[in-house]
Amino acid sequence: MKSPWTIAAALLLLLSAGTGCEPERRAAKAASCAGGAWTAPGDDTMTYAIEKTDEEWKRELTPEQYAVTRLKGTEPPWSGALLHNKEDGTYRCVACGEVLFSSKDKFDSGSGWPSFTRTAGTAGVREIADRSLGMRRTEVVCDRCGAHLGHVFDDGPAPTGLRYCINSTALSFEKAPEATERRRANE
């Protein structure tokens, strides 16, 4: 029997096949819509503000978080704790706390992973050309610590046309103060 990680990787391959996602073509569109940095293929000189050893990451992250963020794994579709989260707030990198996405830009893509139309600002994520698994995709990593988050595709809704397909395991969620106060007032 295949492991859930193997099945998830196969599903991701099927879901992303044929998206026509060309990082070179998308780079200007992404920069104008979402900010963030884009790294060309073959750029293996990337450095991050937070650099830790594998042993340090293993101590700080759960095994699932480590597998996704440090080993570029993929959680099984429909399994993420934040997939159906509808609360107002901010999505952060689970490894370093960097602000990545806003709940205002989250949408249901039907893919089984949390999806966003844009990043939270000009910092936060870095896009890297990904030629793994015999495909051309764009990987999304945390710009601060290099944690693997997921991939971005050019089949999202308006206004950006982008779909940041992100592993729930790679995210933490911080409720907006107003949402917390509204909920308390209604209790």
- Provide the gyration radius in Å: 16 Å
Strand content: 15-25%
Order of helices and strands: HHEHHEEEEEEEEEH
In CATH's first tier, which class applies?
Mainly Beta
CATH superfamily membership: Peptide methionine sulfoxide reductase
Seen as an oligomer or otherwise, the chain set is single chain
* Tertiary shape: globular
* Domains, number: 1
Low-confidence stretches: 8-44
CATH-scheme architecture: Beta Complex
Strand order of the largest sheet: 1-6-7-8-9-5-4
Number of strands: 10
Tell me about this structure.
The chain has 187 residues and is α+β, with helices and mostly antiparallel strands. The chain has one domain (22-186): Metal Binding Protein, Guanine Nucleotide Exchange Factor, Chain A (Beta Complex). 26% of the residues lie in helices and 23% in strands. The strands form 2 sheets. Strands 1-6-7-8-9-5-4 form a 7-stranded mixed β-sheet, covered by helices on one side. The chain has a 3-stranded antiparallel β-sheet with strand order 3-2-10. The N and C termini lie far apart (47 Å).
